[in-house]
Each structure stands twice: as C-alpha cells, then as structure tokens.
Design goal:
alpha+beta, L-fuculose-1-phosphate Aldolase, 7-stranded mixed beta sheet, 6 helices, about 15% strand
C-alpha cells in the first residue's frame, strides 16, 4: 500500500511540475483490491504525505477519520466499476485541453495520434457540476470505447493499465489539444478518414509503450 501511495504522490507532484494542473486542481487514483486509493480533498500536491492518500471502496465507503477523498471521487468509482481495464486514473485541468473543452467540442481526427485515446476522435463529456453523479454519467458516455476524454468547461481525464501510462496519456491529450488549437488558427484542418483511422487504431493495438 505504501508503494501505491508514494506513486500517487509522485505523479500528483508531476501534475504541477509538468504543468498539467496547478496547486491542488485535478486528482489521481490507483485501483487496489475492492476499491482505489485517491488524492485527498483540498491539499496542495507539494505537501502530500502517504497518510493523506485516501482509500475508497467500490461501494463508495471511506473512513472520514483518516481523510476525505477528492470531491470528484465518484467518477473514479464509476470508471473502475465499469472499465475493468482501468487500473489508474489521471484527471487534470491542463490548459489546452481545458481551453478546447470550454467550447464543448471534442477533438476530431486532425492527427493520427488522436487514436492514442482509443478511437477516431476524443470526445467531450457534457458539463455537469463537479463531484456529482451526473458528471460521472456524462464522463462514462464520453469514455465509451475510449481511454480518455475532455470534460466540458472543466478539463480532461485519462485511464490506463498503470499510473505511468495513464499520466502519459494525459500528457498526450494535452499536447494534441495544443496542436488542435494551433491548427485552427490556420483555418479548418483536414480530417483523416474513418478508414485511415481504423488502420491507425489497428497499428496502435500493437504499439507498446515502455
């Protein structure tokens, strides 16, 4: 358990150092047995200690005497319950992904790397107040057949088989978002066809990230 907590703290601090989220915004979790460990509510990542990382069961129970989980723990719970391949989740308020999300638009196949999120586009979940079950429902819909999505007027979320890969995917989404914003400054980008994206997705299945 201490190793998992230490890993969560390491990547939480990287949210700040890699400029994916400032101060205490966003959250990170890792699946463990019948639940998950998650960053706490309201604490700056720079001050996190192992004792601050909170365990939440898949039924939504946690010990308030030990700590209060991130206010958005519910969508972590729902993703773990629905997505068996989700072992770690990174939610970030990264600048460019958030900027795109404020237009309530997803990211089309303007670049083949969009496929890293699992499909021919990156969807944007509809807006709902943070920390609500409505937001969870919207996120799950946007994540259908995907490992990452934007969240309208909010940010982005990514999951994968471990925390390293989930964090890397969040970085990919942020970079893709910046490239998309830049391409729009030149006009309307040319979108790759569904057939081409199917080829890319087929190749991506065999692409191993270290």
């Amino acid at each position: 358990m201490s190793k998992i907590k230490a890993e969560i703290i390491k990547y939480s601090k990287m949210l700040n150092s890699r400029k994916l989220s400032a101060l205490r915004s966003g959250n990170i979790s890792v699946r463990y047995k019948n639940g998950f460990f998650i960053t706490p509510s309201g604490k700056k990542y720079s001050s996190l200690k192992n004792k601050d990382i909170v365990f939440v069961t898949l039924e939504g129970r946690f010990d308030k005497k030990i700590g209060i989980p991130s206010s958005e723990w519910q969508f972590h719970q729902d993703i773990y319950k629905i997505k068996n391949d989700a072992k770690a989740i990174v939610h970030a308020h990264s600048t460019n992904a958030t900027a795109v999300s404020t237009h309530k638009r997803g990211i089309p196949a303007f670049h083949y790397m969009v496929a890293m999120a699992g499909g021919h586009d990156i969807r944007c979940a509809k807006y709902a107040t943070y920390g609500t079950r409505d937001l969870s429902k919207n996120i799950l819909k946007a994540l259908k057949g995907r490992k990452a999505c934007l969240i309208a007027n909010h940010g982005q979320i990514a999951f994968d088989e471990n925390l390293s890969k989930a964090f890397e995917l969040a970085e990919e989404v942020e970079n893709i978002s910046l490239q998309y914003i830049t391409s729009l400054k030149l006009g309307r980008p040319k979108i790759l066809s569904i057939n081409e994206m199917k080829k890319v997705l087929s190749k991506a299945k065999n692409y191993k990230r270290g």
